[in-house]
Each structure stands twice: as C-alpha cells, then as structure tokens.
Write a structure and sequence with these properties.
This protein is α+β, with helices and mostly antiparallel strands and about 325 residues long. The protein folds into two domains: about 1-210, H-NOX domain (Alpha-Beta Complex); about 245-330, Arc Repressor Mutant, subunit A, CATH 1.10.10. Helix content is about 45%, strand content about 10%. The protein has helices spanning about 20-30, 35-40, 45-50, 55-70, 75-85, 90-95, 100-110, 145-165, 235-240, 250-260, 265-270, 275-295, 300-305, 310-325, 325-330; strands spanning about 1-5, 15, 55, 120-125, 130-135, 175, 190-195, 200-205. Strands 1-4-5-8-6-7 form a six-stranded mixed beta sheet, covered by helices on one side. Strands 2-3 form a two-stranded antiparallel sheet. α5 (about 75-85) runs parallel beside α8 (about 145-165), α10 packs across α11 (about 265-270) and α13 (about 300-305) crosses α14 (about 310-325). The longest helix has 19 residues, at about 145-165. The termini are far apart.
Length: about 325
C-alpha cells in the first residue's frame, strides 16, 4: 500500500540553491572558508542566501562533495543533518501539528516535503511486516550525492526517533542507500545496507505506524508551507541570470555551466519547452526592465547598464522594439 507524491513538474532536476545553506553555515561556524569550493562551481554565498535561485541538483551534489573534501570530513552531510533544526522545518512542524499516530504524521509529511525538495519522489510503503519511508530519485545522477545522502540519513533517522520518543529502538530500523560511503556502519545504532537504487530509504516494523507520536509542547503553530511554482529549466535559468544580464558572454556554455548541466542538455530542454536561449534572455531583460521601471527610481541609463546595454539610447531602442513604448512612457503609464 504505497502512499507517494510524484512532483512530475520537477523531473528536469532543478532545486532551490538555498538548500545548501545549512552546509555553508556549518562550515562558517567552524571557521572553514567555503570559497575555494564555491569558486570551483562558480557560485557565491550571496546566491545561496537567495531563496529565488534554482540550479540543477547535480551542481548541488558536486558542491557538497567539495565542501566535504574542503573540511576533511567524509561524513560532513551527516554532521550537518545532526544539527539541522527539525522543529523549524515547515514540513516536519506542520505534519506533527495534527497527528496523533506515526502513520498520521508520515501521511502528512509525505505530502508536504516534496514542496521543499524537487527532483525526488517521497513514498510511504506499508508491507505486511515492515513500513518503508522511501526517497526515490527521478533521474540517475551523474554526480554521486554522497553528502546529500549522509544528510538525509541523519535527518530521517532523527525524524523517526523524535516522533517515536521512548519507544524508539534503533535495532529494528534499517537505512538503505547506494551511497553507503556517506553513512558509517551502524549509524546511531541503525543497520545500514547497500541497495542498487540511487535513492534512499528507512524501514521499521509496521506496528510502529500505530504508535502515538511524541508532541513537543513548545512547538509553535504554523501555517502550511507555501506551494512551490513549477521548477522548469526556464524558471531555473531566469533565477540564475537575473544578476548576470550585464555580462558579455551569456552563451549556451556559460549559462549551462551556471545551472550545472551540459550545453547540449540545456538547448534540448529549452527546445522541449518551445523556446530558445536568446528568446528567454530577451524576455528576462524586458521583465526585469519593467519591474525596475515600476518599483525603483533608477534612471533608464542605470537600468540599461544593469541589463548589459552600453548607453541609454541602445536600451531605449531595445525596450521600445519589445513593448512599443520608451522606458519613460512605460514609467509614466498608470499601473
């Protein structure tokens, strides 16, 4: 009896870059400079703090593996997962609010957590003797998600331990993953096993599902998490290019590198969406120009420079060719 959420719109594999933030904070708290790893993938700490930026999941896998190398800790993902604030995480907190039993909690959680993590499918599978919480990858990763898997092990083991409380028995729990190098044997007393699938799963006796969950009295009420918009390659590309439109080289190789994919894959995906790279860059420039004209006091020359135009005249010609108005006419128009 599987219960799952399959975010089909996320199958292109793009995720929110801000999910890297707990790793970045962990390194900074230990006076480890993350810049050498960030520089290798062309990222900055400011981009990670921007919740509107999306990149391909494999770029994140590679960055976190580089963080591990930089820190000299092969279990970095595990350490970060052990410090992660479960009760401040909306899917966990909201799922726990109305649940009285473990099956109610997991049923709520499996519906909420995909909003936080794209490119995967979360499932609760109930068998005769075992219950399995599974996180399946929608694509075969070209970059091994070793540290992401370690992070997942710590978070999901802690999650199950937190809600079962005194009835927790790690000897009856099994964590399975292909990327076993990210998790030490018998982690937290839990048996760890290799499985060929690129995802990961946590299994435990099925009768645990009917146990009462442990509620935290200090848990503050929260509303449901905001539903994410579709994370397509177009949305991801727009998010990563907003602050780079003044750069001279925005060709396929450069843009694909920023997203963490190959140029041919970028162009093929854009074609699938019925668009092209030049068309999307032009659309983004117009959208951003209109946004700045409406909401800022920047001059047309300043806005043009931000979008990569050498002077006001070039920007004005571009803007009028796309909208039928000059920047000043658009700004004067009632909104």
């Amino acid at each position: 009896m599987p219960l799952s959420t399959d975010p089909g719109s996320h199958q292109e594999g793009f995720i929110r870059l801000a999910l890297v933030a707990p790793f970045l904070n962990y390194l900074k708290e230990r006076d480890i400079d993350p810049r050498p790893a960030l520089d290798k993938v062309g990222m900055s700490a400011d981009q990670i703090s921007d919740s509107s930026v999306y990149v391909h999941s494999e770029l994140v896998f590679g960055l976190l593996n580089k963080f591990s190398d930089l820190s000299g800790d092969k279990y970095l993902g595990l350490r970060v997962g052990e410090t992660f604030d479960l009760y401040g995480w909306p899917p966990f907190a909201v799922a726990l609010q109305s649940a009285t039993t473990l099956i109610e909690f997991l049923t709520n959680f499996v519906r909420l957590v995909p909003q936080e993590s794209s490119s995967v499918r979360h499932s609760l599978i109930v068998e005769a003797e075992r219950a399995i919480y599974s996180v399946s990858r929608l694509q075969e990763p070209a970059v091994s998600p070793v540290q992401v898997t370690g992070f997942g092990a710590a978070v999901y083991v802690r999650l199950l331990q937190s809600v079962t409380g005194k009835t927790w028995d790690p000897g009856q729990v099994v964590w399975e993953t292909r990327y076993i190098a990210g998790v030490p044997p018998r982690y937290a007393g839990v048996e760890t096993r290799f499985m060929p699938d690129p995802g990961m799963q946590l299994s435990f006796p099925v009768d645990w599902l009917f146990r009462d969950v442990v509620r935290m009295p200090e848990l503050s009420p929260q509303g449901p998490p905001t539903v994410e918009e579709e994370v397509t390659i177009v949305a991801a590309m727009r998010s990563i290019l907003r602050d780079k439109l003044d750069e001279s080289d925005l060709g396929a190789e450069t843009v694909a590198g920023l997203l963490g994919i190959r140029a041919d894959r970028l162009l093929k995906a854009l074609k699938h969406h019925g668009t092209t790279l030049p068309r999307e860059i032009k659309r983004l420039k117009i959208d951003l120009a209109q946004e700045l004209l409406r909401s800022s006091d920047k001059t047309a020359a300043e806005i043009g420079a931000k979008l990569g135009y050498a002077d006001k005249a070039h920007f004005t010609r571009f803007f009028k060719s796309q909208t039928g108005m000059t920047p000043s006419e658009f700004r004067a128009k009632p909104s």
